[in-house]
Design a protein that fits this description.
76% of the residues lie in helices and 0% in strands. The radius of gyration is 20 Å and the shape is globular. It contains twelve helices and no strands.
Length: 306
């Protein structure tokens, strides 16, 4: 008993510090992610979402190559190329859909619909992997999807203004990507995942750009370069955050992106969400947080008195 009393304060303090670091890094990661959506909107109508995505991936890869060289190329061998292809294709697709949504709707809508990802993950696991969904998790999903309906407001005009649908599709595609990332995490290093993600995304978007290449201005190039830096920052900060704490512990902090989107949208683009979007956002965030918690119940605390 005495040993437990001596060990608990230090152990709990270290755990709390680790969670705090992970949470801070995750908030920083989603700030970078939100800035990307703002940059996609800021670059203007003269550059479409596909061109923006292609340049962002290519420039991010160019920035990463020196680091891979410094590391001696040890991050390149892999035995799970199909998983990398799935993650890279879904990641690039999710990014493209998210950037397209950011150009068509306000930043809060785009970001909150992207953050439906935690709710799609258990549904995919249920449909594809036949995993059972507990009753509490169904309740969380119901709350989140009620918020989604309020934000999207499905009606006859939805197809004429598809921005919300694109944001929702980004959330679904990123859920598939996240499942691939979880599988890759069993054997692949962070830099291996990032290298293949950018290579596959660059190649895929380059193929999609055939016949669509266009000249861009110096100002547009600077904006896309900033987007590439944000992409690298988001990926590296995310990986680092989850090295300090489990996603189920700090995952709720990803919803800080909604706050960032609201502030950036208001200050930069004079966007003010209506009441329906605010209510829907609260429900989506609540459902998402609960689904993160109930998908991954906390692990039992080890008994240090033994």
């Amino acid at each position: 008993m005495g040993g437990r009393l001596l060990q608990d304060p230090e152990g709990n303090g270290q755990a709390a510090a680790s969670v705090a670091k992970g949470a801070a890094l995750l908030v920083a990661a989603f700030l970078a992610n939100t800035l990307q959506s703002a940059l996609a909107r800021a670059v203007g109508a003269d550059m479409d979402a596909l061109t923006f995505t292609w340049l962002t991936f290519v420039l991010a890869l160019v920035l990463l190559i020196p680091l891979l060289v410094v590391r001696g190329g040890r991050d390149l061998p892999t035995a799970v190329l199909p998983l990398h292809l799935l993650r890279g294709g879904m990641g690039m697709g999710g990014f493209l859909l998210f950037m397209a949504a950011a150009k068509l709707v306000n930043l809060v809508n785009a970001n909150v619909l992207l953050n439906t990802t935690p709710m799609f993950i258990p549904l995919l696991a249920w449909l594809v992997l036949k995993q059972r969904i507990p009753a509490n998790l169904w309740k969380a999903l119901a709350v989140g999807f009620a918020g989604m309906v309020i934000v999207v407001q499905p009606n006859a005009s939805l197809l004429d203004k598809p921005g919300d649908l694109l944001g929702l599709a980004a959330g679904f595609v990123c859920a598939i990507e996240f499942l691939a990332v979880k599988a890759l995490g069993r054997s692949e290093s962070a830099f291996t995942q990032l290298a293949y993600f950018l290579v596959i995304g660059s190649l895929t978007s380059s193929l999609m750009m055939v016949g669509r290449f266009q000249s861009i201005t110096a100002d547009q190039l600077l904006v896309v370069l900033a987007s590439a830096i944000c992409l690298l920052s988001f990926q590296l900060l995310l990986i680092r955050a989850y090295s300090f704490a489990d996603p189920s512990t700090i995952g709720a902090f990803q919803y800080s992106s909604v706050i960032f989107a609201g502030l950036i949208g208001w200050i930069w683009f004079a966007q003010i969400p209506n009441l329906g979007v605010v209510v829907g956002t609260v429900l989506i965030c609540t459902g998402g947080v609960l689904s993160l918690v109930w998908q991954n119940p906390p692990r039992p605390t080890p008994d240090l008195s033994a």
